[in-house]
Amino acid sequence: MLGYLTVAMSWLCTWNTGNADERYSAASVEAVYLYRFGGYIQWPPQALSGPRFTIAVLGDDEVADALSKVLKDHSMGSLPASVRRARSLHDLAGAQMVYVGGGYRGDLHEVISSLAHRPVLVVTDEVDALEAGSMVNFVIADGRVRFEVSLTSATRAGLKISSQLLAVAVRVKTG
Predict the structure, then answer these.
(1) Contacts 24+ apart (CB under 8 A), 166-173
(2) Residue ranges making up the domain that contains 152
(3) For the whole model, what pTM was predicted?
């Protein structure tokens, strides 16, 4: 599994957002990352007791579209995976992963507070989002889509992040 992660993550990490000839948009790359993150997070059993694994997307329809294509006919563990376009905090209920895109114009602190102490992986695309309580945050490093991780926020939510995923993060925030 480590070999597959290394290949997948190195492909993603080398994708250059600055090259107009590239076949994949930033939204497509982020969608693949979101799908892959699910395989490297350990949720408590009660979080995966529902009929589906749901990724709610708030503030980025392009990522939601790309993720719908990525998840088609795929599962997360033993559960079929699905995407939910969220328009409000109410739409986040029951999701195991929430992605708050750069297009979200509401209060990120409010979103994160509404999910506090629930086993939900919160992924964002905003400067300093880890400091606001996000668990994984997309960043552009050297023209490439990368990500940073907050172990503190993940632990607070009862999630365990694989050391394999931490090894390819550009920054891991502890404490």
Answers:
(1) 168/5, 168/6, 168/9, 168/10, 168/13, 170/139, 170/141, 170/146, 171/130, 172/148, 173/130, 173/148, 173/149
(2) 2-173
(3) 0.87
